[in-house]
Amino acid sequence: MIxxxxxxxxRFNQIPDDVKSKxxxxxxxxxxxxxxxxxxxxATMDHDxxxxxxxxxxxxxxxxxxxxx
Length: 69
Ligand SMILES: [Zn+2]
What we know:
Elements: E1 3-4, H1 6-13, H2 17-24, E2 27-29, E3 34-36, E4 38-46, E5 49-56, E6 62-67
Parallel strand pairs: 1-4
Antiparallel strand pairs: 2-3, 4-5, 5-6
The structure holds zinc ion (ZN).
């Protein structure tokens, strides 16, 4: 399940679609020691940065991605 808070949704919508999919499929998982896709994430704003916190597509470990504002 994917959740956005309203501010994070606004910020995310400003990102072009091709960049969005690159961001979501280029998250580092320390357990896989590889670049993976983030799934089941929750998006919030951390000051001016967009924070995605979710799970690794391969091993379900917690992963996160910060998109700098
Ligand atoms: Zn993983």
